[in-house]
Amino acid sequence: MNLVCIGISHHTAPLELRERLWFSNDEIRATLPVLKSAGFDECVLFSTCNRTELYAFSDEDNGRSEFLKRFLLDRKSVQGHVSPSHLFSHFSVAAAEHLFRVAAGIDSMITGDVQILAQIKSGLNLATESGTAGFFMNKLFQGAFHVGKRSRSETHVSEGAISVSYAAVELAQRIFDDLSTKNALVIGAGDTAQLTAKHLKSKGIGHLYITNRTQDRAENLANMLGGIVIPFETYCDNLSTIDIILSSVNSDRYILGRADIEKINKGRNRSALFVIDIGVPRNVDPAAKDLENVFLYDLDSLNGMVNENIGKRAGEIPKINSIIAEELTALDRWHSSLQANPTIIALTEHLERIRKDEIEKNVHRFEEKDRDLLELVTKRIVNKILHTPIVNLKNGHDESPSERTHRINTVRKIFGLDFGQSDKKERSNAG
Questions:
Q1: 3-class DSSP state for residue 267?
Q2: Which residues does residue 294 pair with via DSSP β-bridges, in sequence order?
Q3: Residue 264 pLDDT
Q4: DSSP conformation letters of 188-215
């Protein structure tokens, strides 16, 4: 198949170069028609924070990778900053395989990335709107979407927290099961604290309380998430009803000592208290872990959980490779069948002309009332004659391109089909 993929990703270039080659949706809409006018029948372009990828297809064998690399660099005016060596290229089946790996989330910076599939869909939609995605690209990208869906439904590649903030919330769900009846206090308003607070909110936490040394930052986070602000000076007086404590502040001493946790614990009627300490240095005295019904996790324990999940995701890659192999085989069979389509059409038209000619010559021999039946019966005869040749023309997926072409040409010779434009089309599709 005459498919070429050109791109830049975290595998080939650092962020400061990748961002120079990032295309907005408006830039994509403006770029695709220009690329199509350069001699490519179909093309799709998409950009994410970690990659920009261009897929181009043509009936003729013009996989001009160097042209496409220069095209992207010229389009963004990044010569002198980004060089062709920062871009990768894949051809034919390897290009399709690369797209399938991206859709499955195993080419991402984070294995099992769940956002990439929507980003690829957006790229196809933009190409469809721009009139540069047709029969071939739609089939190719539908295959990629199928790989992505199968990878997530048939494997565990997207399961398990792989960030400290999400790991903390995942642990909270294990301990409490239903977070909707629980109250959480977030101490701090930095990036990690914000992310964890957002995850807690997305998981339906009952009440979310925020405290921070800087009151304005606490109020901003509370307003963003529908939380309640507690003054930093008095937050220790409001802990008896709190089930989850997340602490992430800069402090050279413990802001919650063992005695503080023990005092909180006494008024909780033996219910569980989950404490997440992601401060550096640690915010909570690790000795509090020994208290009854207290579950205390620090960065080391959370990172251990994250690393374990990353390992589990990596262990799913062989299963995904099998899925990709199956879908590539299906795509290759579909593409192989396209080579025979012009001959199938020519053969069908040839027999249909014979059928119509014979009916026209002999229709006077039949009564008017029998002519509809004559039409029906002769069509059925033609379809039965066509069935076996068409099946055989579409088969032969394991053949080499030359073997496939020879078999198709044999059929054309047997039936006396014209070797013209259709044959040229078949030879180009073989690529």
A1: coil
A2: 273
A3: 86
A4: --SHHHHHHHHHHHHTT-SEEEEE-SSH
Sign of CA dihedral 57, 59, 63, 64: negative
The amino acid at 219: E
* Residue carrying structure tokens 């959370």: 302
pLDDT of residue 389: 86
pLDDT tens-digit map of 125-176: 999 999 999 999 999 999 999 999 999 999 999 998 888 999 999 999 999 9
Tokens for 90, please give them.
């894949």
Cα separation of 263 and 273, whole Å?
12
Domains within the chain, CATH numbers bracketed? 3-158 (3.30.460.30), 164-307 (3.40.50.720), 328-429 (no CATH)
Query: Are residues 5 and 107 in contact, defined by beta-carbon separation less than 8 angstroms?
Result: no
229 forms beta bridges with 210
Q: CA-to-CA distance for 383 and 390, rounded, in angstroms?
A: 10
**What does the pLDDT read at residue 391?**
85
Question: Chain centroid to CA 226: how far?
Answer: 32
* Longest CA–CA separation in the chain, Å: 109
5 part of the active site: no
Q: Crossing angle for the helix pair 135-154 and 92-104, nearest 10 degrees? A: 40
Count the neighbouring beta carbons within 10 Å of the beta carbon of residue 114: 13
Q: Indicate whether 406 pLDDT > 90.
A: no
Distances from the Cα of 217 to the Cαs of 143, 169, 183, 202, in angstroms?
46, 22, 20, 20
